[in-house]
Amino acid sequence: MTTEKTEHGLSKKGLSAGSVGLIGAVVIGISCIAPAYTMTAALGPTVSEVGLQVPAIILVGFIPMLLVAFGYRELNRAMPDSGTSFTWATRAFGPWIGWMTGWGLIAATILVLSNLAGIAVDFFYLMLAQIFGNPDIADLALNPVINVVTCLAFMFAATAISYRDMQTTQKVQYVLVGFQLIVLLLFGIVAFFHVTNGSAFDPVPVSLDWFNPFAVESFSSFAAGLSLSIFIFWGWDVTLTMNEETKGSRSTPGRAATLTVLIIVVLYLLIATASISFAGIGTGEFGLGNEEIQGNVFFALAGPVLGPLAILVSIAVLSSSAASLQSTFVSPARTLLAMGHYGALPEKFSRISPRFLTPGYATIVSSVVASGFYAIMRFISEDVLWDTITALGMMICFYYGLTAFAAVWYFRKQLFVSARNFFFMLLFPLVGGVILAVLFFTTIVDSMDPDYGSGSNIGGVGLVFILGMAVIVSGIVIMIVQAVRRPAFFKGETLERGVSDGKEDEELDELPV
How many angstroms separate the CA atoms of 316 and 327, rounded? Predict the structure, then answer.
């Protein structure tokens, strides 16, 4: 493999170039977001925070995601590198901030991997309970030993697929994503049909007021709802981490990210309005305000909406979490690959599978860490596990926000060259980054409340805050250790800090694969 570099230190890493097209990238992006799983888990809690204004909150959460996506697109056009946030923040702000940005992405994705595996286990046994008409089967997921063993089986299968070439990943995703999208559309259409013919549980006519974010009663409710909304969009940036493996590495990943976000927001608005219109937000048996069903809305509403086809919803959520479990491996593995390649981590992270041309070592490490984390936390305390997942919202805002600011700073010499540059390199990523920064610090303050998340606390300080800070501090400690052992990266010798002069495209064109 050739490792020839530009004067800035960027280089290709031996991945399978040209193996992912636009449609494949969009499908993998959608699968990473996991719309079926995300909506069944987030719709109820969002209703509890903002009531009928869920569609408004979805739109508000969509705005910073789209604005940040524009910044990602510009950075990818200039520097199509699999390290994405890590590489771009390093080029813009230097090795220390760059390293922590990469850590934010890795920490968030590995935490989500463990959560997705746990959700897949729950819905696997729920599906079996429905198929065999035996509710007791669903309770098997509550047994820690059975739960962890099944979870490790899911992780092994996802790792095996991710270790193989990107063509295998795409083939699996076409089936899993296609199925869940069909079921979600069916659910939304049939729910509206029940509303129109008077057979809905608590029919509520759709109102334009649902789309008005100013109708939310308080700023704290607005911020909590927005945090949930941003979480449900998270994952679209996987399309960028595949840039060295995508046909048209500068343009296709950015287009895929934008298309992914647009498709998801339309789908979410359909499902949210259909569910609210069908069930209302009351506390009745199927009302979205009923705390007993808020953690798994689709499982509760599947029967009333789809009748004998209800089993399809459980299969869709299972396929959603399984698809996302597999595709989510893409981001941390390629970020670890880049960090190893540029000397920010041990060189073994830069190893490429000679057969499949994928980051084999980094994929396995991601799987082992996520599996171990889930197994330990599942036996210690479910509260700690789920509060850690809640804390990942901080990490999402942290690394998305830093990447958005990196776009503004890296392109600072070109911001006023044209109207296009002003909007896509300055205004859009800056506004998106500021929104995420405000949400990051708001979440830090709110999570100190002992009632935040599961309600667990240590010394009167909310466990979500403690866990979030633990993730960030542990990253700082690991970074310092790496700085001592691998000073070249932290001196800027392997990946230089710089500013865009508009010549990156020509330099990268000259690099051999």
Answer: 16
